[in-house]
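Re: weekly structure request thread

Next one in the queue (366 aa):
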Amino acid sequence: MGLKIGIVGLPNVGKSTLFNALTRTAAAQAANFPFCTIEPNVGEVAIPDARLEKLAKVAKSQQLVPARMSFVDIAGLVKGASKGEGLGNQFLANIRECDAVIYVLRCFEDGNIIHVAGKVDPLSDAEVVETELMLADLESLEKRVNGLEKKAKQGDKEAKIAHGLVLQAIELLREGKLARLVKRSDPDEEKAFQGLQLLTAKPVLYVCNVDEASAATGNEYSRKVAEYASTHEAGCVVISAEIESQLAQLPDDEQREFLSTLGLEEAGLNKLIREGYKLLGLQTYFTAGPKEARAWTIHKGDKAPQAAGVIHSDFERGFIRAQTIAFDDYINLGGEVPAKEAGKARDEGKEYVVKDGDVMLFRFNT
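Done, posted below.
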């Protein structure tokens, strides 16, 4: 499942520092985790999940293969991007290709780092980004609305659904609200809405880039952002890009000590990656054996055949059943065989909705 999260922000907010810390962390994990740089501005990182190591120990797996996610460092936005200012056209195209967007917001004072607006105001920064995206969406929808209306009047059912959604979105955008607030009542409407490919419909995570002293507790700026996020159907994470940059260059044992001195329980990047995962409505199931223990990414609500299809399309097409063991049962009972003996290994069919942490083995026809 190729998932991309775009990292955006105004100049000098710490966006590239954060992205570089992400990619350096992944590079440092290369001995244990898959990592690749697809392009100069795309980095693929492992999803931190302590369950995978526990699973590998019980299954005596030779290798651990975590789930992965791509982060895209998108060129700095400037006011007027929706009209092509700066790298505006490329900026919008890059966001359109992403599944979700992280807004890096400057939540620290530093006289040596000039803010483009002359003052630190993370909410204003967020609004600059969102305004450009809203203007781009509005222009796109206004070009499409007449064509959809014509098709709808001719009896095209899909066009009628899309037309209603477009009118809703236009009204919201003209009021300065985001398209993701459009109400969808059934799967047909959801499918049509996703087909519109609106920039402001994408899930958003606000990342408050704070100074080192505020990394553990946040500050006045980050608290305002958290409140803003709660009213805009968005997530929020507090992180110090500078700390993460330093942390990424240290070996594991020194990282733990460094975090402890700062009063932090874990790296902020771990929180960011997990929140990105959550933002996209994702979850993990596992496969385990002597060769490898592997985490697989699926959407919440996916059924067993869809989960099998993530491994290979043939698994989904020829799906027969899935042997399923809850993660806790697998660990506490000591693996697949003891779980079977205890009656904790279930054979599930095509309608089984996979749960987060399930350890699965698929049976299928070739």
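The radius of gyration is 23 Å. The first strand starts at residue 4 and ends at 8.
Next request, please.
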